[in-house]
Amino acid sequence: MSRAFPVFSWLEGKKRATMVSGKRMADMGYRLFSGSMMLLTVYGGYLCVMRGHRYMQRQKQLQLEAENQTNSD
């Protein structure tokens, strides 16, 4: 026996109540959770790439400064 939960959707300004089964509610929750985890993974990857990019730029800048310092001496 499945229990149903009322879900309200607003279509064309009218409030209609539809019944959603527990399995469907669990499916929606799983998809929402999975989607949020995918977004967090993509965002984490972006942050790692940007940090690596900044690190490489800083290393190049330090190397240029070291070369300029030795050339000016």
From TrEMBL:
InterPro entries: COX14
Residues passing through the membrane, by range: 28-49
One Pfam family named in its UniProt record: COX14
Keyword line: Membrane, Mitochondrion, Transmembrane, Transmembrane helix
Localization: Mitochondrion membrane
GO cellular component, as recorded: mitochondrial membrane
Domain of life: Eukaryota
Topological relation to the membrane, as annotated: Single-pass membrane protein
Record protein name field: Cytochrome c oxidase assembly protein COX14 homolog
Species of the source: Synaphobranchus kaupii (Kaup's arrowtooth eel)
